[in-house]
C-alpha cells in the first residue's frame, strides 16, 4: 500500500416525514467524532431526501474526493438491527420525495442494469462485526426499499462499479442510541476497508505470479 491516506466518504440523510431527526445523520456525526483512525481521511455529508439532489450530489462526491469507498447510511422505521444492504435496484421509484417529486422514468439510470451488487461481501462484514461483540445487532438485506436510500445506493454503485455500501439504521432509541449507532458504523466501515485491502492484495499477488 502507498503511504497516502485513504479517503472514505460517509453520507446520512436529512429529515423527512415523521423522521424530524434522521437517525442516519445522527449516526454519521457520531462516526465523524470517533473517526476511522489516522490512516483514513473521513468526509461526511448530509443528503437531502430529494431525487434530483442525489443525482447531482453523488457524482460530485466521487469526482471531488476519488474515495476508496463511499458508505451511505439511511434510516428505516421498520429496522430493529443495523442492516447491511447487498445491492441497489434501478426500477420502481414511485414514492414522492421532500419536494413532492419522483422520477418520470421511475428508475435511477435509464438503461442501467436492474440490480447492482456491492463488491463488498456484506455477509462477511456482518459475521465479523457480530463476532467482535459490539452489542449492536447487525443483519444483511437484499432490498433497500425503493425510496431515496435505494436510489442513492444504486446511483453510487453504478458510478463506482460496486465500490459503495449502504447501511440502514433503526430510529434513535429503537433500541440504540446515536452513540451506539456511531460505534457500529465505525466497526462496519473498518471491516469493509479491511476486506477491500485483502481483495487488493489478492489482485496484487496474482499480478506478480
Task: Please explain how this structure is put together.
The active site is at residues 85, 149. It is found in: Cytoplasm. One of its GO terms (molecular function) is pyroglutamyl-peptidase activity. Belongs to the peptidase C15 family. The chain has 209 residues and is of the alpha/beta class. The protein has a single domain, classed as 3-Layer(aba) Sandwich (Aminopeptidase), CATH 3.40.630.20. The protein contains five helices and eight strands. It has helices at 23-34, 51-65, 122-131, 148-160, 178-208, and strands at residues 6-13, 40-47, 69-75, 82-85, 87-89, 115-117, 138-141, 164-169. The chain has a six-stranded mixed β-sheet with strand order 2-1-3-8-4-7, sandwiched between helices. The protein has a two-stranded antiparallel ribbon with strand order 5-6. Helix 1 (23-34) links the parallel strand 1 (6-13) and strand 2. The longest helix has 31 residues, at 178-208. The chain is globular and about 45 Å long. It starts with 5 loop residues before the first strand and ends with a helix. The model has no long low-confidence stretch (mean pLDDT 94).
Amino acid at each position: 500500500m502507498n503511504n497516502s491516506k485513504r479517503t472514505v466518504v460517509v453520507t446520512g440523510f436529512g429529515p423527512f416525514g415523521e423522521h424530524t431527526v434522521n437517525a442516519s445523520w445522527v449516526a454519521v456525526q457520531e462516526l465523524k467524532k470517533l473517526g476511522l483512525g489516522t490512516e483514513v481521511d473521513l468526509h461526511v455529508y448530509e443528503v437531502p431526501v430529494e431525487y434530483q439532489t442525489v443525482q447531482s450530489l453523488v457524482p460530485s462526491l466521487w469526482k471531488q474526493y476519488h474515495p476508496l469507498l463511499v458508505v451511505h447510511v439511511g434510516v428505516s422505521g421498520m429496522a430493529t438491527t443495523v442492516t447491511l444492504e447487498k445491492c441497489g435496484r434501478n426500477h420502481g421509484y414511485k414514492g414522492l420525495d421532500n419536494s413532492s417529486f419522483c422520477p418520470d422514468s421511475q428508475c435511477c439510470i435509464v438503461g442501467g442494469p436492474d440490480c447492482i451488487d456491492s463488491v463488498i461481501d456484506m455477509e462477511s462484514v456482518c459475521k465479523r462485526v457480530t463476532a467482535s461483540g459490539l452489542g449492536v445487532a447487525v443483519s444483511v438485506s437484499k432490498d433497500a426499499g425503493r425510496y431515496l436510500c435505494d436510489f442513492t445506493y444504486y446511483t453510487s454503485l453504478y458510478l463506482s462499479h460496486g465500490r459503495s455500501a449502504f447501511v440502514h439504521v433503526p430510529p434513535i432509541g429503537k433500541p440504540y442510541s446515536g452513540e451506539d449507532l456511531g460505534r457500529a458504523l465505525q466497526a462496519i466501515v473498518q471491516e469493509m476497508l479491511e476486506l477491500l485491502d485483502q481483495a487488493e492484495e489478492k489482485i496484487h499477488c496474482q499480478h506478480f505470479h
